[in-house]
């Protein structure tokens, strides 16, 4: 891949374009995230939010890989921060749990997503949901603000995950916690896949090994680290065929490389 700044600019460009698309359009691309695999007619990673309280269809762009708010142990009156909030999907679900006395802050580095989130909040009449433009590696939030942090398939897009989880630790109150859904690996990706920019934006080539991911969380100072949900992601051959030869695809399958969606819970002492 390129430099960290180039990666960020590429992700911002991709997700800026996605912000202008509907959920249907996003689901027709690989990984549900605008990778350009238009022949794949479903979202490979996204879970269904439609039955969750607080669901706002206009905020659902099918970009996630889990349902972190379902596991986040949010209570009435909590301050909840959503990292990589997009159009506000998890923010609005979190608000339905935190209630009128709660406060939800969505962070995203893509201006088009922030505008979409604010528009959705305004249309719904939500005055206790706000959206802030910012970088997860340098969050525009004061220390010890959040009771709960959620994030859905975003940390894998951040080049410096150590800094991102250190920032997460900083903004959570003592005794607070996070529930984060993300993509991790078991087994090494080939250079062809890891260096493919569109697969980075599609959450695959930016992912790290599962043990490394959990280790970063522990080194940031979090305790009680628990995997709340895990599922294997099966990438169709027609997606890989855009980037790999038939033999490389066979090697990928033969080496039992696993791409997993996990939802991780951890506490700040």
Q: How many discrete domains?
A: 1
Mean pLDDT: 83
Strand order of the largest sheet: 3-2-1-4-5-7-6
DSSP strand count: 7
* CATH topology (level 3) name: Rossmann fold
Give helix and strand order, one letter per element, not per position.
HHHEHEHEEHEHHHEHHE
- Largest beta-sheet details: 7 strands, mixed
Spans of at least 5 consecutive residues with low confidence: 27-42
Distance between the termini: 36 Å
The value of Rg in angstroms is 17 Å
CATH class label: Alpha Beta
**What is the number of helical segments per DSSP (H or I, 4+ residues)?**
11
Summarize the helices and strands and which ones pair or pack.
Blueprint: H1 4-18, H2 23-27, H3 68-71, E1 79-83, H4 89-98, E2 103-108, H5 111-124, E3 129-133, E4 146-152, H6 161-171, E5 172-186, H7 191-194, H8 197-201, H9 210-219, E6 223-232, H10 237-240, H11 246-254, E7 258-267
Parallel strand pairs: 1-2, 1-4, 2-3, 4-5
Antiparallel strand pairs: 5-7, 6-7
Helix pairs in contact: 6-9
């Amino acid at each position: 891949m390129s430099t960290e700044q180039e990666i960020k600019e590429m992700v911002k460009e991709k997700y800026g374009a996605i912000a202008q698309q509907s959920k249907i359009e996003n689901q027709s691309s690989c990984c549900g995230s605008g990778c350009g695999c238009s022949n794949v007619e479903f979202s490979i990673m996204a879970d269904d939010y439609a039955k969750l309280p607080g669901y706002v269809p206009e905020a659902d762009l099918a970009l996630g890989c889990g349902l972190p708010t379902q596991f986040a142990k949010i209570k009435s009156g909590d301050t909840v921060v959503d990292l990589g909030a997009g159009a506000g999907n998890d923010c609005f679900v979190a608000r339905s749990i935190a209630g009128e006395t709660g406060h939800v802050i969505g962070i995203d580095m893509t201006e088009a997503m922030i505008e979409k989130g604010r528009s959705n909040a305004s249309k719904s009449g939500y005055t206790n949901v706000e959206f802030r433009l910012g970088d997860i590696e340098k969050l525009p939030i004061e220390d010890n603000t959040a009771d709960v942090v959620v994030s859905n398939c975003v940390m894998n897009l951040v080049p410096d995950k150590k800094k991102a989880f250190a920032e997460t630790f900083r903004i959570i109150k003592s005794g607070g916690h996070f529930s984060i859904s993300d993509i991790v690996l078991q087994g090494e990706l080939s250079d062809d896949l890891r260096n493919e920019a569109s697969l980075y934006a599609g959450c695959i080539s930016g992912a790290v090994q599962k043990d490394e991911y959990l280790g970063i969380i522990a080194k940031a100072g979090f305790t009680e680290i628990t995997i709340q949900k895990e599922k294997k992601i099966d990438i169709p051959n027609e997606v890989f065929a855009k980037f790999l030869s038939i033999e490389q695809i066979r090697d990928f399958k033969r080496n039992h490389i696993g791409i997993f969606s996990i939802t991780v819970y951890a506490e700040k002492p």
